[in-house]
Amino acid sequence: MKINHPATAGTLESSDIQITLTPADSGTTIQLQSSVEKQFGEQIRAVIAATLTKLGIEEVAVEANDKGALDCTIKARTIAAAYRAADNKTFDWEEINAWIN
Amino acid sequence: MVKNKLNREIPTPYADQYGVYGGEFANIRLYNEHARHIKPVKPDHSKLVASIHDAIVATGLKDGMTISFHHHFREGDYVMNMVMAEIAKMGIKNLSIAPSSIANVHEPLIEHIKNGVVTNITSSGLRDKVGAAISNGIMENPVVIRSHGGRARAIARGDIHIDVAFLGAPSSDEYGNVNGTKGKATCGSLGYAMIDAKYADQVVAITDSLVPYPNTPISIPQTDVDYVVQVDAIGDPTGIAKGATRFTKNPKELKIAEYAAEVITKSAYFKNGFSFQTGTGGSSLAVARFLREAMLKQDIKASFALGGITNSMVELLKEGLVEKVIDVQDFDHPSAVSLGENADHYEIDANMYASPLSKGAVINQLDIAILSALEIDTDFNVNVITGSDGIIRGASGGHSDTSAACKMSMVIAPLVRGRIPTIVENVNTVVTPGASVDVVVTEVGVAINPARPDLIEMFKHLKVPQFSIETLKEMAYTITGTPEPIQYGDKVVALIEYRDGTLIDVVHNV
């Protein structure tokens, strides 16, 4: 999947995460702010990175503002932001379902 | 480094000074009660002084002394900030302060610490910005966290010697007869302040409602008071009731309350003449509501409710479902009113409430206590003082006191809060040892402490899902993931005293 322009998914409500993806020249960078940074910061970064890899996105700048979201929420917001950034409206649920857990 | 009975590491100098926790009742010993120094008052002497400044001058307060306050005005307290501002202005330094607790409203303390006015603190709890500042390490000496019963013990035994107590008085006459049920800012019971009045060398009553002599009822008597000061306002009545919640609609809290009520009503303790204590959280108040229905249905009356009193207890008293309310502190206005009007609503001091070194505290007569928690671990240890990020933000309160003394202690808490698991492998800080905790109640079911086989037998047929505490922890971690341990610094920022005065844990800086 190719990122065409910046896109955001998610809110700043408690238990949600707001993810903004911006096109980048090379590699993936993740800037995370989290209310549970000390306990779960690394896990949140890992979930975002793994989700982007599964979507085939390798060049992107991620800004994430986390308010204690669970992993399922983090994956869902990442996927939504990616589809929006790629202008992709044909959701292949079976394909997503094959790797999401 | 010394390891206490819970394997918590206590740095040797503190271990030597305080002793380390060795079991709930392992360090209850004979002692001589602490005596105060008294300046007798002759017939022609007036106790009335013109200002807080004059009162401080009259007491001869100087560098290095210990002063105290009470926290009955909770988030509405003006007294501590007023007195500390005056003390700072007068240039007095190096004070130890021993308030019964510290609220968000006491944020100016941070400046007094930075300026060297305050160099030692003991308190039940630390909130918000003060807690964060202490956790960041702004004090050289660690704060000593004491339970309500533990503070009463520390004062009675002389571990805390109070030179001057500055006590906010909702009403007082000019000879120092004080109560909390009359005046502009009524807080109800003065249970924590009564201890300070009894043991401090000098007591200053600060009031905004000076009434003709003699002011009755007398909660703090003239024989304990040296000076009386009139000020414009001692507290904000709306702040006193802040945080006391109404009946919850949160389905998770209701489920917890429903399960907790099921445990209580199916226990052998639930019979005519039983007694209980609840907290002020959403679930806790809902338990009282469910309990009321069961009491009506089964025609069961309680002999007394203890606490930490809220309007829900007062309503049970009015309905005749509870015969007496025993009151060390009030959390809302109706409770304060009830204390003033109802002879069956009775005020007690912190010594009688919960001290392990009194000649028998009321909690020793208590059947069931319903308590909250920030974290509970697989050894049933409870943390109510540090957040999941390791920062001090809670209060010890009566948690370790009531749970040790009552017949069945129940800790009620959601399995997870957002992404934070409540049931964990190891709590950040132990306030109450697992030996005191009998039943943990969550929205998915309960865990009974294996140390209580009698309860396991009693609840064999309970219609609430039962799990081991390890299973509850696994269920929590499945939802949240396994949290990384907090990385603390090397500096000890707080000592957690057990109620007997030994150290059950310490808190490091973050």
UniProtKB/TrEMBL annotation, chain A:
Residues annotated with O-(phosphoribosyl dephospho-coenzyme A)serine modification: S14
GO molecular function: lyase activity
Compartments, as annotated in UniProt: Cytoplasm
One GO term describing the cellular component: cytoplasm
InterPro entries: CitD (IPR006495), Mal_deCO2ase/Cit_lyase_ACP (IPR023439)
UniProt entry tagged with the keyword Phosphoprotein: yes
Pfam family for this entry, one: ACP
RNA-binding among keywords: no
Record's keyword terms, sorted: Cytoplasm, Lyase, Phosphoprotein
Highest rank taxon of the organism: Bacteria
Protein's job: Covalent carrier of the coenzyme of citrate lyase.
Family as reported in the entry's similarity comment: Belongs to the CitD family.
Subunit composition and interactions: Oligomer with a subunit composition of (alpha,beta,gamma)6.
Protein name, as recorded: Citrate lyase acyl carrier protein
Species of provenance: Lacticaseibacillus chiayiensis
UniProtKB/TrEMBL annotation, chain B:
One family name in Pfam for this protein: CitF
Subcellular location, principal: cytoplasm
MF term (GO), any: citrate CoA-transferase activity
Keyword Magnesium: no
Gene Ontology terms: biological process: acetyl-CoA metabolic process
Gene3D superfamilies recorded: Glutaconate Coenzyme A-transferase
Localization in the cell: Cytoplasm
Keywords noted in UniProt: Cytoplasm, Lyase, Transferase
Any single GO CC term annotated in Swiss-Prot or TrEMBL for this entry: ATP-independent citrate lyase complex
Keyword Chaperone part of the UniProt annotation: no
Bilayer-crossing regions: none
Enzyme Commission (EC) number: 2.8.3.10, 4.1.3.6
InterPro entries (alphabetical): Citrate_lyase_asu (IPR006472), NagB/RpiA_transferase-like (IPR037171)
Catalytic reaction equation(s): citrate + acetyl-CoA = (3S)-citryl-CoA + acetate; citrate = oxaloacetate + acetate
NCBIfam families given in the database record: citF
PANTHER family xrefs: CITRATE LYASE ALPHA CHAIN
Protein name as annotated: Citrate lyase alpha chain
Organism of this sequence: Lacticaseibacillus chiayiensis
Gene that this polypeptide is encoded by: citF
